[in-house]
Structure formats: structure tokens, C-alpha cells
Amino acid sequence: MKRRTFCPRLCVAFSLLALAGVPAGCSTDASSTPAPSGASGTGSPGSGGSSTGASSTTGSSTGTAGSGGGGSTAGSAGTGSAASGAGGTGSGQDGGVSDAPASDGGPAGSGQDGGGSDAAPASDGGPAGSGCSTALFCDNFDSYTAPGNPGGMWKSSTQSGGTLSVDTLHAYSGKNAVHVMDPGTAAYERAFISLEGAPIFPLPHNTMFGRMMIYVTKVPATTVHYSLISGEGSMVPGFPNLTQAFYRYGAQINGNLFLAQYDNQPGGTSDCAQRSQVAVPQNKWSCVEWRFDGELKELDFWLNGTIVPALSVRQKAPNGSAACQNRSWSGIWEPPTFDAIRIGWQHYQQGPGEAWIDDVGIDTKRMGCPP
Q: pTM value?
């Protein structure tokens, strides 16, 4: 497929920089389908650019290809309850907020949880412990036949060699979990399961809390950006020219340092990131929780029940020259009206990834980890 390059002059400049040993990147797009972008670079957390791959989704869900990445963050913290952090570009720091306590899931300073549950709980695979009796959705995947895609409300989306299946090799509870894997041979690969539309979406206050258990066995050996969690929507209030926006959690530097990431379509007009120095745990079960608040434009992330302040976003990443790859973007992580949540493995440069996912829960308040 013919591809067009958005930044021919910059690409030439980036090539010269690469020869000089300075990491950089350039964004491209397939001529017929918006392509996802991702942060690139091979250096310390200060490096980053964007690269994209063509999108052609398979599976039962169309799964609009999102963009991912963002450059390094630097400078002082943004607004809100999170404290500021040090770290200049290329300094090896995460450039994000410091380790001061952050909000535990509600509006900054309000003590609220982001909205009550206004919808009846849904479940496709049985309860998964903490919070599931009143949650919007819980699933431990034990009601599905292995091997095969999870059924019920789940939709499956794979691309470019990515695979997913319910199996019994690793399970946190019960007998089953969902195995997701990207072989890493293509620049853009996907293995996602998703919940889309009613009865879960739209959400009260446009705020989502989620949790899942994850068992990671393989991460890229180099600086490859990938997403594990993606909250998405096709309407971005106040931005009629945008067709989609994404709140994400994944990892990048050295293949395993967690980051928060924001982007929108068309064209990856923002591509923002806020980074941490917290590594993705491997070869053991870990509990990850997230809060995507579309009313306050905030994100939070917990690992094994403990909040990671460096991944708490308060409207925008810390002001710095590369908080967003698109320097003309305001820096605000403008939320969509959420209509889908995708979990699994999606990466934007070459590099493998493999994980098992179990005990997923979605609600309008924090659920906590399963027992």
C-alpha cells in the first residue's frame, strides 16, 4: 500500500540526528486508514518520537486503530493534587509527578469516588471477588470454552500476527484466563479484547474505574511502546474535527516501564505521555487498577493496591518540551465520551509481548483487587 509521509523535511533532519547518535522519530500514515503512532527512540526516558503502522483489523470487533506513544516528559507538574517532579529531558527521570500522595480515585481534593453506580451490574463469567456484587461488569473467563475467544459481551480484535485465546495455562482464579500475545515481527500488532457500548457505556459522569489481574511473561528488549489498557470514545466534546480519543496505560522505556498515554485521531494530533520508573512485573500475577475520569480530565493507576503517583495525570502531563509529540497541541488530555474499554497487548514498534489476563472488573467507583 502506498504510504505518505507527513514530515519529509523533519525525517531528513531526524536521519541526520540519528547518524549523530540522537534518537528521534517520524510519523507516517497509510493512505486509506488512520495509522497508530507510538513513541520511539532507543535512549533514556528522555527520548521519543513517533512511528506508525498500517491498520487492518481482524476479529469480531472493528477496533479502530489508535495511536500511542508520546515523547519524554520534563519540567514541573501539571495542575491538580499530584505534586511536581524533577527530571529534564533525557535525564533518566520519569519527568512526571513526584511520589507525593495522589487522589485515590475521586475528583482532586473532593474525597469523592467519581460518581456512583447508576446501572445494574453485568457479568459474563462469574464473580471475581472484591466489588463484583455491585459492579457494572465482572468476568473471570471460566464460563468460556478453551481454546477460543471469550464470548458473551466480549469482542476480540487481532492484527498482524497478534493472537488471543482463553486457555488454562495460567489462571488467577478458577480454571481459565485470556492469553494475549504479539510476536513482535511487525511494527504494529494487536491482541485486544473489548467491551463496547451498552449496557456499560455511556458511563455516569463519563468516569470509569477498572481492574484486572495480569501475568506478563514477555516484554520487548528495547524501547518499544505498547498499550495494555485503552479507554476510547468516538466523540470528543468541544472538538468536532476529532473522530476518536484514547486514555491509555502501557509501558515503553527498556520495554517495561509503565506510562500513561493520550492520543486522538485523525493523525495523532496530540501523542502525549507521562512516564514512571515503575517496571511491569513479570512471571507473577499482579493487580492493575485504573481510573479514567472524563469529567475532570484525570487518570490514576494502582499496582497491587498501591497508587503510582507518577502515573496520575491532572489534565495534562508536566509542562516540558516533549510532554506531547505534537508541540502545537494544548497539552490537555481532552477526553472522549467513553464508549469502549480494550485490554490486552497492542504495540507500535517491533518487539514481542505476552500476558495472561483474569478477573476483570469495570465500575463507576474503585473496586479494589480480587482476594
A: 0.71
